[in-house]
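I had to read the description of the data format several times before I understood it. For illustration, here is how one protein appears when written out as sequence plus structure tokens:
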Amino acid sequence: VGDPPCPIPCSDPVAESWSVVSVFAEAPVRARWARGRVLGGGWRRRGRASIAAPATWLRERASARSGPHRAGLPRLPPRSSRRTAVRRTSPPATMSGSGAATVERLTSAELLGPDVAGNMALVDALNHPSTGTDDVAKTIKALRRRLAGKNPKVLLLALGLAETIMKSCQFKVHAEVGTKAFMREMVALAQGKRGTGEVQGKALELIQQWGIAFESMTDVLPVFSETYTELQSRGLRFPDASKATPLFMPPAASGGGGG
């Protein structure tokens, strides 16, 4: 397949030299014209080869881009609007979805030790005004599931996390921890049914700490004191109460009395 015949007659040297220049100048245009015919655009007829062809071709291509799509397909919105649409439809992160996952991460057996910064970040999330009681309940439920395990390392990390949130969180967290379901797992650990002696000692320490701190709030949170008194009656040996670490009572939880 060769180039189409030169449209300018070559009868004299001047015209002949001009035809050579025009052929070389129009070679890229012809290539674009051939491509345009395949894509549905470009020049309308093959015989349209002249010096004005490039300008005409550019005008036609500009009108084709600004007008209706030649294939009849809808045009996509600009990239910025597409990104905005995706960003608006993405669901926001909620405490109910991240609280349980955070508990799993903070009590993972792969940790070398307690993640103090992560524990305090969870405390801040639980104390945030936008965190409702349902989100707190799901987070504490995830912590209770960790206390029901058998891995001593996980149990110690879970007990340490429970101690941190009880010392630094508000009444809405205390109310979820002070339930029979949660304290039942604490009693099992305190009796030595799961874990090691270190786990049992930590569980006894926390039960004693919470029982003394909420002793004057039995009308609101009676489970802490009831659990402590019941285990004392069973003969379990608690640490020396005079050497026990006092529980820090935040203002939201100390309205009915201090510990």
Summary: The CA atoms of residues 126 and 136 lie 6 Å apart. The radius of gyration is 39 Å.
